[in-house]
Design goal:
The protein is mainly alpha-helical. Helix content is 73%, strand content 4%. The protein has helices at residues 5-38, 40-47, 52-82, 85-94, 100-133, 141-172, 177-200, 214-226, 262-267, 270-285, 288-311, 314-319, 327-344, 346-368, 370-384, 392-398, 404-416; strands at residues 207-209, 233-236, 247-250, 257-261. Helix 1 runs antiparallel to helix 3 (52-82), helix 4 (85-94) crosses helix 5 and helix 10 (270-285) packs across helix 15 (370-384). The radius of gyration is 24 Å and the shape is globular. The active site is at residues 280, 361.
């Protein structure tokens, strides 16, 4: 089949973008391997990693699996849309109903189910292969199946509702639907800040308010130092699935909450845990959630504007042999075209997140002192086998948090105030290739 210029352009865009990011992943692995070998002593003294080969092996394997999944997914998409599979899918759903909206809902739900099923083999390899080998996995096959079914149900529900709403807007507001879709994004984003902690997350984990005792006293001490009234702090039974450590802040108003993984509570010293809590409180104090929300809304305004133009671009439909009335197929093609552009512009959104994380680290150092936060970062990176040495180019496009050595270096500067005689092991520089 001879490709039109538009179809060829889409193919080049998809493959080139994937190739560029695969190249960055390869460079990232090579770069990390080199620095890990050069800074074994720092890894052991600061991050508690006494087997740096384990760190490198974990990083290589997780990267390889991610790349394999990405390329198989891309090949599947290319084969489907360039072999006539997309037009065949349109013909199939057209037999279900005369309503384009209903056709589109069935179309997108089918894609969501197919994508979920296709990801299962990779999830199995990651969970019961890589994570098991490196001692992270606590998930049972029964829990894995349950999680998969719940995720599938949620995906079907959300995709059906959102695709139905957007396609209805396209049908009834042919010139204004991008504005309606943007408004829907804003509303859904706000609602999710309420629904996720109260409805969705409890489908997967149990959340318990921090009870009276030593932990509660530690939490209250941080709130008192930070000038806050003690609010919703929960522990989550993350150990049901993994031994890795984490914490997060979500929500606004009465729905806001800080969540501490039970693994974090178990493995961290109290001062370290308090510094992590102070870091999360900074996101609250500095209104980072709202700033990120505003930035996301601006980005989505640009995205839906681009989608609006592409959905109305009839040559795009002709290039892939689908009728112009099948706006849901046009919307899929538009998303495929816009997605690489979002990847390329990721440094813009990452820059804001990096700024917020540095502010949160500084706030934690102000509340608890720099050393507990340094120790907490070292423990988090060491326990999770996180790559501390990302390639600068890779980090630019993928990292929403500064690399661990940079974060530790900034905290040490606060601790020593430029004292060159400080004996603390200095983090290696990671900004040069």
């Amino acid at each position: 089949m001879q490709l039109s210029a538009i179809a060829l352009g889409v193919f080049v865009l998809l493959v080139t973008t994937r190739a560029i990011f695969s190249y960055l992943s390869i460079r990232n692995v090579q770069y990390a391997d080199q620095l890990v070998g050069q800074h074994r002593d720092w890894l052991e003294s600061t991050l508690g990693i006494d087997d740096s080969d384990e760190l490198r092996d974990y990083h290589r394997l997780t990267t390889a699996i991610d790349e394999l999944e990405s390329w198989i997914g891309l090949v599947a998409v290319v084969v489907i849309i360039y072999s006539g599979g997309l037009s065949w899918g349109v013909d199939i759903v057209a037999t279900i109903s005369r309503s384009v909206v209903l056709q589109g809902v069935v179309f997108f739900v089918g894609l969501a189910v197919a994508a979920q099923l296709a990801s299962i083999p990779f999830s199995l390899v990651s969970t019961f292969g890589v994570e098991e080998i490196f001692g992270f996995n606590n998930q049972t096959p029964t829990l894995f199946i349950r999680d998969t079914l719940v995720q599938l149900g949620l995906s079907v529900g959300f995709v059906a509702i959102l695709s139905g709403a957007v396609l209805t807007a396209i049908e009834r507001l042919p010139t204004l639907w991008p504005a309606a879709a943007w408004g829907l994004f804003v509303v859904v984003s706000l609602v999710m800040q309420i629904l996720y902690p109260r409805v969705i997350a409890p489908l997967f984990n149990d959340f318990e308010p921090v009870a009276d005792g030593e932990l509660r006293e530690s939490v209250e001490a941080v709130f008192e130092r930070a000038g806050f009234e003690t609010s919703d702090i929960y522990t989550m039974d993350a150990s049901r699935r993994s031994t890795q450590l984490n914490a997060y802040f979500i929500g606004f108003g009465r729905t806001k909450r800080v969540v501490l993984f039970d693994t974090l509570v178990e493995k961290m010293e109290r001062a370290e845990l308090q510094s992590v809590l102070a870091h999360e409180l900074a996101h609250w104090k500095e209104a980072h959630i709202w700033k990120q929300f505003a930035a996301g809304a601006i980005q989505m305004a640009v995205v839906v504007a681009a989608l609006g133009w592409l959905v109305d671009f009839e040559p795009l439909y002709a290039a892939f042999g689908i009728p112009a009335s099948a706006t849901y197929a046009g919307l899929l093609l538009a998303v495929l075209i816009v997605s690489p552009l979002l990847q390329v512009t990721a440094p813009l959104s990452n820059a804001l997140s990096l700024k917020h994380e540095r502010e949160a680290d500084a706030y934690a150092a102000e509340v608890m002192g720099p050393q507990p936060m340094i120790d907490a970062l070292g423990r988090l990176a060491g326990e999770n086998l996180a790559n501390p040495f990302p390639h600068p180019w890779y980090a630019t496009f993928h990292y929403s948090h500064p690399p661990i050595p940079e974060r530790i270096r900034l905290l040490q500067e606060r601790a020593t105030d430029g004292d060159a005689t400080d004996p603390t092991p200095q983090p290696p520089a990671t900004g040069d290739d």
